[in-house]
Amino acid sequence: MYEWIKALHIIAVISWMAGMLYLPRLFVYHCEAEPGSKQSETFKVMERRLLKAIINPAMAVTWLAGLTLMWLGQWYHSHWFHAKFLLVLILSGVHGLFSKIVKDFAADRNRRPQKFFRIINEVPTLLMILIVILVVVKPF
Question: Which of 40, 55, 53, 46 is nearest to 98 (CA)?
Fold first, then answer.
């Protein structure tokens, strides 16, 4: 059963990361749209659907499968796992920030510039790289 749960976890992580990498790009383009315009309204729909239909469920499955793997594999004793867990908590916090930003755009309350979204777009990538290294290499 462990291998099936691991496969589900990997699929969920890929889905979660795909959304986490795409959503801030939508924010960059949404900044250019005039509030209330057809383009802005289209971005609102895209952002909401991406978050609700892909990112949120993928994160939930990632957490459930990951915690199951941690328990079954008894990884909670490993130092590499503690570091990975911290990074996943940070990634979940970034997810929460993205959820707030979707709400801000939906209410035409975004005050952040494009540059912010271009920078924040790199955070999930960096976290993903570090997490994968910890899981594969298990350096400590």
Answer: 55
